[in-house]
Amino acid sequence: MLQTIIWGIEHLKNIPPIKEGKRLLVVSDSSFPLLPIHESIMTSLSEYTFFCDFGSNPLYEDVCKGVELYHRNNCEAILAIGGGSSIDVAKCIKLFSNMESSSCFLKEKFRDSPIPLLAIPTTAGTGSESTHFAVIYYNGAKQSISHSCILPNYAILEPSVLTTLPIYQKKCTFLDALCQGIESWWSVNSTPQSIKHSCYAVRTLIDNLDGYLIKNERSSARNVMDAANRAGQAINITQTTAPHAFSYKLTSLYGIPHGHAVAVCLPEIWLYMLQHEENCIDSRGFGYLNNIFHDIAAALHQPTPRDAINFFKQILNQLNIEQPQSLSKTTDIDILVHSVNPDRLKNNPISLNPTAINDIYNSILL
Ligand SMILES: NC(=O)c1ccc[n+]([C@@H]2O[C@H](COP(=O)([O-])OP(=O)(O)OC[C@H]3O[C@@H](n4cnc5c(N)ncnc54)[C@H](O)[C@@H]3O)[C@@H](O)[C@H]2O)c1
């Protein structure tokens, strides 16, 4: 499915479902009234129902409430405004609203949904506005939903929204985008097109880190929103790899935000991969992968992959992004090792067996 990317909230009123006055389900969370674009959005909409009954790391049950509201109000299109959580909830509402009622939508076969979906990302970010995936939690476990129809038809990028994002959230979502760019680059599923997106995303994020996170410059915010979107486009092609697979249980076990959890995993996994070239599963070989590691290091302005790993750790230090502290490390590591989805590891260029996963978690936890 194709997507149209539009810069500037002033264009919202001209996007077909809005222009045609379709009845909207607006999916957003409690940050919506704080956004500088709140007024401008409200004046662009005609008939709408607001849905905000969900939190960060949304649950399946939250989505079901949204589906019910969508039907009850005879909605015709969905507008998501928010970070990855709001956008992912909206994607699942789109998918499930077009399914027959069932005891559990997750157990049914997904089918194409024609409901128009628009997304305005406010975190820069998860890139969820440009992927065909959604993450929700069911019975305490992460569920990755994937269907071509949940790629939003329109993504509206408006950097002014980043002015209200709290600094810790800014750091976490920035790091999520950086990890996505790096992971997509080394993924076994990479293509020339995905690598183009990754390279642009990683370079742009690094070159705007100070401007965005330290100096609060407006031009850097625009560049970071652009780069986060490109990182999303990259993982839309390749999917994510081991750092994301390792991160999900850290989020649910220690309550740390998604971007924070992924970022503490990435340098330890990269180091392990450098030390275990014999376990390379990328059909292009370790020579190819090693070149990719050097290209990523170059994008981080570092001479070698090892320097790049140290540099990445320095960034975490500079941003005060700390490793999780475990009070019962052996028990926690056992839970964590069992949580890693083996399917997601298939995208990782170096295979990781349970001993490797155990050792890596041991170095991630304090
Ligand atoms: N679908 C995908 O492709 C994809 C990719 C990566 C991550 N994700 C998922 O995205 C979720 C995380 O999303 P996120 O990191 O964007 O955070 P989020 O959507 O959970 O938002 C985090 C917090 O920031 C607030 N917030 C968001 N934008 C704001 C703004 N501009 N001003 C003030 N407050 C604001 C929210 O209200 C919330 O309290 C996770 O569930 C993760 O699994 C999805």
Cα Rg? 20 Å
Q: How would a textbook summarize the main sheet?
A: 6 strands, parallel
H/E element order: EHEHEHEHEEEEHHHHHHHHHHH
Number of domains: 2
- Fraction of residues in H or I helices: 40-55%
Q: Give the termini distance in whole angstroms.
A: 44 Å
Mean pLDDT metric: 96
Count up the helices. 15
CATH architecture of the largest domain: Up-down Bundle
Shape: globular
The total count of strands amounts to: 8
CATH superfamily of the largest domain: Dehydroquinate synthase-like - alpha domain
- Tell me the structural class: alpha/beta
CATH topology of the largest domain: Dehydroquinate synthase-like, alpha domain
- CATH C-level class of the largest domain is Mainly Alpha
Task: Offer a few descriptive terms.
alpha/beta, Rossmann fold, Dehydroquinate synthase-like, alpha domain, 2 domains, 8 strands, 11% strand, binds nicotinamide-adenine-dinucleotide
